[in-house]
Amino acid sequence: MEPAPSPQEKYQLITRNLQEVLGEDKLMAILKERELKIYWGTATTGKPHVAYFVPMSKIADFLKAGCEVTILFADLHAYLDNMKAPWELLELRTRYYEHVIKAMLESIGVPLEKLRFVRGTDYQLSKEYTLDVYRLSSVVTQHDAKKAGAEVVKQVEHPLLSGLLYPGLQALDEEYLKVDAQFGGVDQRKIFTFAEKYLPSLGYAKRIHLMNPMVPGLTGSKMSSSEEDSKIDLLDRKEDVKKKLKKAFCEPGNVENNGVLSFIKHVLFPLKSEFVVLREEKWGGNKTYTAYEALEKDFAEQVVHPGDLKNSVEVALNKLLDPIREKFNCPELKKLSSAAYPTPSKAKPGEKGTKNSEPEDVIPSRLDIRVGKVISVEKHPDADSLYVEKIDVGEAEPRTVVSGLVHFVPEEQLQDRLVVLLCNLKPQKMRGVESQGMVLCASSVGEPRQVEPLDPPAGCCPGERVYVEGYEGGEPDEELKPKKKVFEKLQADFHISEDCVAQWKQRNFLTKLGTVSCKSLKGGSIS
């Protein structure tokens, strides 16, 4: 048998990959005396997706450190959060969560007998708990309750009283579950500090709080149950996993907001202590990484190609999902899944449906694409693979744009060059510099990868509109909403013709002076 880990080793296991710990001294003091008691809660709302492997991975760490772990299925919280789970579906969704969370834990080798599973309604409807809710409401201000739930409770124009109760109930859970610590995402921080402030006012101890970073989804933003393209469902077919990973944001050399890399860091590495990049012999063969930092460094320096990274994650992820798919491939659980999450046309009273809503037109005229002129270009101060450019697009001031072109286009070839710029993406920070647009480029399909900025026709002026043939009219969106995925949906049909002309569904990109093209990458993609 392996020797029991020391308090310091337990502390390292418990805190690795966390973004923040509130109460570090208390944590170490407890570990020197006994095992830590900790809980993780999940509101039983939307279907769990692969991002749930992030807290599952930490739960595995907690058990390795000898912690006594409780998993709370927060069914009452799901109802209080703007009725995300309608009352008539609450029991069904809680049962679904219990089955799927246990299947996830089993798939990563966590022994279920070492865990305690509790439903919120098992104790939150008791006389004692209810009295404490009233006691808490007599000391908590409306301002503090609203502030505490701002990052977690759905924010609406006319908030319900239920959303103000939510943080108080989560604080009381720490006392009623008899734990030393609560674990959650860093988006829970305001609720955690709320609990630290108010539990002592009821005569209860202040707890330790452990926070995971928010792991970006496949599109670069938060992975969300309500944002279909940002997530991979636990029951997605293998072909769906491949399709979603293929579309995932994974720009060469860019390690910021990279959901593919983040999944490796927070799930695959902690589970296996290594990650294998699978690739053909002609590209160097398979490479095993035993430290995440080495993989990130190689990706930043473009030693590892995004395609190889995605393929390797696909293989590893399907190994985790296979036992979950198998468990849910039985009539009983198929029926439970359909009943807990009915399709919109079958939605029960109180459940939000979309059958009467009009689908939005996803057409090229919604993109604000303009001719730009590169006024200046320099290396990003904190990223070897990125340029920071100032680009004139006919506005009062040039735009700052960050592009991953260092390994493809020399600085002198960008300076004073005319480019094609997508101008209505939401500004996004890339390694600390806010990028206010995207330089559209042609990219080769095969290896080695080649990239060429798209060329507007000679004689164009900065600010001239670029449009798709047949879509000259129509006003572009002021700002493309990330959740709508308008650009991503249109981009799927962008390509370079055999004549090196940029096209969408065989329709040319144009300005008033002619077609937009690239120099040589016929048959390539556009990104």
UniProtKB/TrEMBL annotation:
It comes from the Eukaryota. InterPro entries: aa-tRNA-synth_Ic, NA-bd_OB-fold, Rossmann-like_a/b/a_fold, tRNA-bd_dom, Tyr-tRNA-ligase, Tyrosine-tRNA_ligase_regulator. GO terms for biological process: response to stress; tyrosyl-tRNA aminoacylation. Residues 363-467 form the TRNA-binding domain. It catalyses: tRNA(Tyr) + L-tyrosine + ATP = L-tyrosyl-tRNA(Tyr) + AMP + diphosphate + H(+). Its main location: cytoplasm. Its EC number is 6.1.1.1. Keywords: Aminoacyl-tRNA synthetase, ATP-binding, Cytoplasm, Ligase, Nucleotide-binding, Nucleus, Protein biosynthesis, RNA-binding, tRNA-binding. Gene3D superfamilies: HUPs (3.40.50.620), Nucleic acid-binding proteins (2.40.50.140), Tyrosyl-Transfer RNA Synthetase (1.10.240.10). It is found in: Cytoplasm; Nucleus. One of its GO terms (cellular component) is nucleus. One of its GO terms (molecular function) is tRNA binding. Residues 339-363 are annotated as: Disordered. Residues 348-358 have a biased composition (Basic and acidic residues). It is an enzyme of class 6 (ligase). Belongs to the class-I aminoacyl-tRNA synthetase family. This is Tyrosine--tRNA ligase.
